Amino acid sequence: MARGGWYFCLKHQQVEPAAGCRAADRLGPYPDRETASRALEIAQERTKAADEADQRWNEGD
Predict the structure, then answer these.
(1) Above 90 in pLDDT, residue 2?
(2) Which of 7, 22, 23, 42 has its Cβ near the most Cβ atoms within 10 Å?
(3) Rounded distance between C-alpha atoms, residue 45 and residue 23, angstroms
(4) What sign does the dihedral 12-16-20-22 (CA atoms) show?
(5) Cβ-based neighbours of 37, under 8 Å, separated by 6 or more
(6) What does R_g of the chain's alpha carbons equal in angstroms?
């Protein structure tokens, strides 16, 4: 991972290095610029997986 990693800025909708916007406005760190560019997709996948796990938990599986 690059020193400090890469981030996706939610405010500007773009990838930036560690010396970017404030932490509250971004996702990351990610190991490289390409992965950071998929930040919203990754977050959506993780949310879906967590929702499915919650559903299984609530159903007693």
Answers:
(1) no
(2) 7
(3) 21
(4) positive
(5) 8, 15
(6) 14
